[in-house]
């Protein structure tokens, strides 16, 4: 059974870079998309971006200028870097596996495995 | 527009049926997936594709879609179904969209 575990600092200073890693256990990182999602306190889910195991990425347009997602297939890990953070970046950060299904004429996507989340607070 | 819209809150009497809806242009092209989130926990996938349930999700959960609207139906709601529910889909640019979430109260 595939499990995901987020890790990284729980406190980041304003203007610095937030760095998190998601470790995939119980399965291979190959053949899937891998996403980062966040949830500010008391608010809804916000997709940050995803990376395909081959390295191709797609980012939320509202965060694109500050986000980098990378993958290390040898370690079965993928990582998030978010630069120039402010208090508005305080949130629970989740990593998730995205699977793909086929239907006539196309595909559909869904996040079937999630990490438990890690809280990141931006404060001096 | 590149967004998904959900009603902020819905309530249902114990044992009754409730439908939670999600509207957005992307849903004309892509199936929604639905996630249940209880306080302090990570989201859990409950419905994906046309109407598929992951292993372990009760069959009282079902999904449907028509035009720009996707729906999650709970037939015979239980107390443990009280949670926030989020819809999600990709858009034509490959970006993911989440609805704002619906807080379900079971009375």
Can you lay out the helices and strands and say which pair or pack?
The complex is a heterodimer of chains A (124) and B (107).
Chain A: E1 3-7, E2 11-12, E3 18-25, E4 33-39, E5 46-52, E6 57-59, E7 67-72, E8 77-82, E9 91-103, E10 106-114, E11 118-122
Parallel strand pairs in A: 2-11
Antiparallel strand pairs in A: 1-3, 3-8, 4-5, 4-9, 5-6, 7-8, 9-10, 9-11
Chain B: E1 5-6, E2 9-12, E3 18-23, E4 33-37, E5 44-47, E6 61-66, E7 69-74, E8 83-90, E9 96-98, E10 102-106
Parallel strand pairs in B: 2-10
Antiparallel strand pairs in B: 1-3, 3-7, 4-5, 4-8, 6-7, 8-9, 8-10
Summarize the structure.
The complex is a heterodimer of chains A (124) and B (107). Chain A is mainly beta and 124 residues long. Chain A has no helices and eleven strands.
Q: Would you write up a description of this structure?
A:
The complex is a heterodimer of chains A (124) and B (107). Chain A has strands spanning 3-7, 11-12, 18-25, 33-39, 46-52, 57-59, 67-72, 77-82, 91-103, 106-114, 118-122. Chain A has 124 residues and is an all-beta fold. In chain A, strands 2, 4, 5, 6, 9, 10 and 11 form a seven-stranded mixed sheet that branches. A four-stranded antiparallel sheet of chain A has the order 1-3-8-7, with no helix packed on it. The model of chain A has no long low-confidence stretch (mean pLDDT 96). Chain B is an all-beta fold. Helix content of chain B is 0%, strand content 46%. Chain B contains no helices and ten strands. Chain B has strands at 5-6, 9-12, 18-23, 33-37, 44-47, 61-66, 69-74, 83-90, 96-98, 102-106. In chain B, β8 and β9 (96-98) form a beta hairpin. Chain B is globular, with a radius of gyration of 13 Å. The termini of chain B are far apart. Chains A and B meet through β5, β9 and β10 of A and β4, β8 and β9 of B.
